[in-house]
Amino acid sequence: MKWLKPYLPAYLKLALPAWLSLLAEVLIDLSLPTLMATIVNNGVMKQDMDLIVRIGLLMLGLALFGSVAGVIRNYMSTHASQNLGTQIRADLFRKVQALSLASAGKLGASSLITRLTNDVMQVQNLSFMLTRIFIRAPLMLIGGILMAFLLNPGMAVVLFFSLPILSVLIVIRVKRGFPLFRKVQTAIDRVNGVVREFLSGVRVVKVFNRMDYESERFNRANQNLAGLSIRAGRSMAAIQPLIVIVMNGSIIILLWLGG
Hints:
It is a single chain. By secondary structure, this protein is mainly alpha-helical. The chain is 92% helix and 0% strand. It has helices at residues 8-44, 49-98, 101-107, 109-134, 136-151, 153-200, 202-207, 211-237, 239-258. The longest helix is centred in the N-terminal third of the chain and has 50 residues, at 49-98. The protein starts with 7 loop residues before the first helix and ends with a helix.
């Protein structure tokens, strides 16, 4: 990942405001349930309308501020990821132009096309997701556990011990998914190669009436790519249900202990 270092200053210039906005969103999301509990316990139960109105207005203000922070985060993260992709793609194209014929032939035109398009897009998407899920989810989890410890340290231990279980499950799924994604990259190269060969020799294909053969070649490569992509997607998609199962199991234990 050393090759990313030259791009980090420009990326962080736009990403840091997005991360600060994300932090504000997380803090607001964590504070709203506590404020609601205050309304119920000290407002509704004691019939204190003044407290209900004051806390309600505070919650409304926080919700509006959180919405503004969300807009800023999306705007800044989109610009950060798009600028990063643009810079990498431009530099990569210049590198490809500087390759010798032997090096370009060894890498293959289809592979170079994939590097300039799909691979850069993956880096771009990763940089965008850093400000949406990859940072937000851990912050929410850590913040939720801290809030639970403040409210009820005994029951919060259950949530704390769910962390190692989640970590092990996620690591296992990621290790199984990565080899499949490598195969997906190879399959993308193959599809690009078939398309390029067809387009460069389309006149010859038509003259010798080889359209059916070329269609079959493309279908085989396309079906292989689709199958590998589905397998890789299923492997990573299993992470979310596993997280839900563990967290819901923790909630059931908490309710049982609390009851």
